[in-house]
Amino acid sequence: MAAVILAVDAMGGDHGPGVTVPASLELLRSYPECSIILVGDEASMHALLPYRWRQDPRLRLLHTEEVVTSDDSVVVALRKKKRSSMRLALELVEQAQAHVAVSAGNTGALMALAKNILKTHPAIDRPAILTALPTQQGSCQMLDLGANVDAQPEHLLQFARMGDIVARCLAGQERPRVALLNIGEEDIKGNEVIKKAHRLLQESPLHYIGYVEGDGIFKGEADVVVCDGFVGNIALKVSEGVARMLAQRIRAEIDRSWWRKAVGGLAWPIWQGLKRQMDPALYNGASLVGLRGLVVKSHGGASQAAFYNALAVALREVEHDVPGLMLRELAQ
Amino acid sequence: MAAVILAVDAMGGDHGPGVTVPASLELLRSYPECSIILVGDEASMHALLPYRWRQDPRLRLLHTEEVVTSDDSVVVALRKKKRSSMRLALELVEQAQAHVAVSAGNTGALMALAKNILKTHPAIDRPAILTALPTQQGSCQMLDLGANVDAQPEHLLQFARMGDIVARCLAGQERPRVALLNIGEEDIKGNEVIKKAHRLLQESPLHYIGYVEGDGIFKGEADVVVCDGFVGNIALKVSEGVARMLAQRIRAEIDRSWWRKAVGGLAWPIWQGLKRQMDPALYNGASLVGLRGLVVKSHGGASQAAFYNALAVALREVEHDVPGLMLRELAQ
User: Fold this and answer.
1) The predicted structure's pLDDT at residue B252
2) Residue among A106, A148, A217 whose CB faces B241 most closely
3) Mean pLDDT in residue range B88-114
4) Strand runs (DSSP E) across chain B, as ranges?
5) In angstroms, what is the C-alpha Rg of chain A?
6) Average pLDDT for residues B153-176, to the nearest whole number?
7) Is the pLDDT of residue B241 over 60?
8) Which residues, other chains included, contact A189 with Cβ-Cβ below 8 Å and sequence gap of 6+?
9) From the CA of A164, how many Å to the nearest CA of chain B?
10) Whole domain around residue B190: which residue ranges?
């Protein structure tokens, strides 16, 4: 396996180097084929490095003092901060010094900078954000999760093609079932955009299975679920919100008496099993697809385990040659 | 308390009279101030009535053989089936023989028939579907859940006004916090419709608190959450799908060994407590708002307990004079 080089925006996210640096070291320990360039404030990063890593050739630090904050507008990120850690990480990909950039920073700024620096893929009009979501049996790829507030039918078709490639590369599905997210009532089924996208998908060579409703995503009815960024973002956040509310309500039920706490303690392996499957950290790492280079976005509030997972997603995408396949297949 | 008369479409839903009739009897037993007119096939309904209810003046049967099925198009429901149980139940409300109609039938047909028979409220352009959703601390009212695939800013303002009235009447909130459902990224925050609705709501006398994201609904950030029917339906179905997936995964974790099953059994009171709060039956009963009469829609697959809850929602809306308040307040 050839060496994979990740460019990591060490300053992005709510916790900055405190999370990104240890997660990066963890990845280097687990994957000997991998190298990392940490971009950010050298002193802060250096202070977090155990002695042996300070001289390891697989780890490089690229110093900069500028950071794109979560409040920075796209305009500020694009025009004012010419040496932000986010921008430099993307430039490393553009200059072919890294295979993929990973950032937990501001999504809007990351998408805008990525388009500006890496450029949109020639066969794609609008890049999208894609992530894996858990289903009853496994997982599915969903896009767009918020890169575009609306989409034309042709864009939804392009999203479907990209989702299909990622599902084949990463989830190893030979012929992923592609579906459009829609609502169920017969007579108001979908708006004009959805209906037209439905026809485009039927005529495409994809394994298009038609519409799924919101609950169908989690039943595992499709391997790729396509929607515009507004609907996708709402669906993603709703799913996170419900899961969190249920966890909190289970907690409250257990805390109601000492007897319940004891039973809750006995049930510890059950919670652990569930956590292993459902932990949001497991699903951290969304891909910006439709660019000429690979970019992975981590949740801003990611823990070390979650950021590690985003790095692992990035590594997997390089190893499975997602960009190569995108280039070859989308050109057709 | 004056008598409240409910017109119940006994034939609607997946289970028909087998669910609607016993649920109706349960309501009559619990609420002595309530009367019910069951609309449907007399023989089927009669067969389900214990002797004492056959002569009770609080229960009336209205016979018809026609039924709107879940596959019937709106056109069929409107034009062909002039004596469907759904239509007759709505006509009872229109003729002031009942205060509210309840049906578990086809949503599209119910909305179309309701608009046709009861007419849209003069201050409202488009009726909407509203339901209560559970939050971390309590519940919130959300609309539209699928009556309209899209909405103009003025429609969203009207939805907000209706949601505000229902929250005050039913949830007893004096000054409900009204929010627009939106996505979070600064630079792509909302489309033009949302932005314009945001301005309209800021200028309105409502207690408008701005945007909430998908996870904010379940954190209880607002008492009324407003969105178009496409987004609302996806959000509702996603929340149901995630809850069902989690329940199924917990089940699978418990079933993995006899020891886990034993612990799962000990945890029974915890599951019961959780079920009491989160049972979808508890949240069954969506209101069609913006009409000149009251209509409550039950889930098609509702169990007896769930259909009972839809009847209880209908009863509560009459007792709290939701239609009267709508008439008085929306006229202003």
Assistant:
1) 79
2) A217
3) 95
4) 4-9, 34-40, 59-63, 100-103, 128-134, 139-143, 178-181, 208-212, 224-226, 286-289, 294-297
5) 21
6) 92
7) yes
8) A182, A183, A195, A211
9) 22
10) 131-281
Domain shared by A50 and A65, yes or no: yes
Residues B221, B263, single domain; the answer is: yes
Can you give the CATH number for the domain in which A35 is found?
3.40.718.10
Please check whether residues A112 and A224 belong to one and the same domain: no
Between CA A275 and CA A265 the distance in angstroms is 15
Beta strand B128-134 pairing with B286-289: antiparallel
Q: Say if residues B103 and B132 touch (Cβ distance below 8 Å).
A: no
**In chain A, whose CA is at the least distance from the CA of B107?**
A185
Q: Do A270 and B248 touch (CB under 8 A)?
A: no
Q: Does B250 share its domain with B140? A: yes
The pLDDT of residue A189 is 64
Chain-chain contact of B213 with A234 (C-beta, under 8 angstroms): yes
Q: How confident is the model over A188-228, as pLDDT tens digits?
A: 566 789 999 999 999 999 999 999 999 999 999 999 999 99
Complete DSSP assignment for A175-204: SPPEEEE----GGG-S-HHHHHHHHHHHHS
Taking only residues 130 to 159 of chain B, the set having a beta carbon closer than 8 angstroms to any beta carbon of chain A reads 134-136, 146-150
Reduced DSSP (H G I as helix, E B as strand, rest coil) percent helix, strand, coil of chain B, to 5: 50, 15, 30
Contact between A74 and A86 under an 8 Å Cβ cutoff? The reply is no
Q: B116 to chain A, minimum CA–CA distance in Å?
A: 15
Residue A97 and residue A21 share a domain? yes
Query: Residue B278: which pLDDT band, with cuts at 50, 70 and 90?
Result: low
Note whether A189 and A331 are same-domain residues. Answer: no
**Calpha distance A95→A292 (Å, rounded):** 12
Q: Which of A73, A148, A183 sits opposite B186 (nearest CB)?
A: A73
Which contiguous run of DSSP H or E holds residue A114? helix A107-118
Identify whether residues A155 and A258 lie together within a single domain: yes
Sign of the C-alpha dihedral computed for residues B29, B30, B32 and B38 taken in this order: negative
State how far the alpha carbon of B256 is from the alpha carbons of A184, B250, B253, B268, B271, in Å: 35, 10, 6, 17, 18
Q: What is the pLDDT of residue A187?
A: 46
Tell me whether B250 touches chain A (CB under 8 Å): yes
Encoding tokens for residue A262? 């004891």
Tell me if A239 sits within 8 A of B242, measured CB to CB: yes
Pair B298, B146: CB distance under 8 Å: no
| pLDDT value of residue A273 | 74
B187 in contact with A at a CB cutoff of 8 Å? yes
Of A263, A281, A299, the residue at which a domain comes to its end is A281
Which residue among B135, B246, B274 sits closest to A253, beta carbon to beta carbon?
A: B274
One domain, residues A39 and A96? yes
Identify from A142, A188, A276, A288 which residue to disrupt to test chain B contact, counting B C-beta atoms within 10 A and taking the largest count: A188
Please answer yes or no on whether A234 and B214 come within 8 Å at the CB atom: yes
Q: Which of A221, A231, A193 is nearest to B233 (CA)?
A: A231
For range A150-155, the mean pLDDT: 92
- How confident is the model at residue B197, as a pLDDT? 94
Q: Calculate the alpha carbon distances from B78 to A194, B73, B74, B108 in Å.
A: 26, 9, 6, 11
> Mutate which of B116, B183, B191 to disrupt the A interface (most A C-beta within 10 Å)?
B183
Number of domains in chain A: 2
Q: How far is B260 from chain A (nearest CA, A)?
A: 7
With contact defined as beta carbons under 8 Å apart, do B116 and B89 qualify? no
